[in-house]
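Hi C.,

You asked whether I'd gotten around to modeling the 212-residue construct. I have! Everything is below, sequence then structure, no commentary in between.
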Amino acid sequence: MKKDELPKIIPVFPLSNFIIFPHTTVPLNIFEPRYVEMINDSLKNNKIIGLIQPKNNSETIPDLYEVGCLGKIKKFESTSDGRYLIELLGLSRFKIIKEIKNDKSYRECEINFNDFKEDTQLKKEELKFSDLELIFKSFKSLFEKKGYLINWKSLEKQDLNETINALSMASPFSLEEKQILLECKNLISRKDKIAEILNTYNYDDFNNSTLQ
């Protein structure tokens, strides 16, 4: 989808500790009535929704981060108990300009794509395995400690560019750390930021093990 074909007002789906990148796909289980309504409306329209993280606060209607990612529903299935099982394809990151008042049960925002023009272009930044070798080792160690199960063989078959985004999405990083990764301008800066975050986790583990 070209940048000028993307909508300027979108329904937003706040998901904590969850991000999606352009050109990646994720499965989602939609069960809250307001978001079932949102998917219903989206399927009748352009099949597009915006995924965005809510900030960690105690508000009934939480503040949202400024940057999220637009997704297009590629597959969907309705269940007998009223849920939707959907597959969402990331299109482009966006920045919220303002929230729109509406009479719907879900939220809508006016957005723009000015900071993320490269998301809709096909140009690829090529990573080499040597760029990611240490990151893979650190991720494996962290995932094992956290009890995460990752299909590494499947990941290793992927394009390295896709792999770094998949690891960012699946990581046990905090909400704030995932948001930083989402907002990185390009893949190389995302790779560098991941290495920086992993270093802090490994540093903490090292300190904890020496204190015990």
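If it helps when you're writing up: Residues 16 and 53 are 5 Å apart (CA to CA).

Thanks,
B.
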